[in-house]
Amino acid sequence: MIQRRIFIACLACSLVILSTEACQMQVLQKQAYAQSSTNRNVIVAMTTSIEDSGLLDDLVPAIENKTGYRLKKVAVGTGQALALAEKGEVDALFVNSPKAEQKVLEDGAVINRRLVMHNDFVIVGPDADKAKIRGKKNAVEAFSLIAKNQALFISRGDDSGTNKLEKDLWKQANISPTGTWYQQTGSGMGQTLQVANQKLGYTLADRATYIFQKQNLSLPILVEGDKKLLNLYHVMEVNPQKFPKVNTAGAKAFTDFVLSPEGQALIAAHGKKQFGQPLFYVDGGKTEKDYGF
Question: What is the structure's pLDDT at 32?
Answer without folding.
Answer: 40
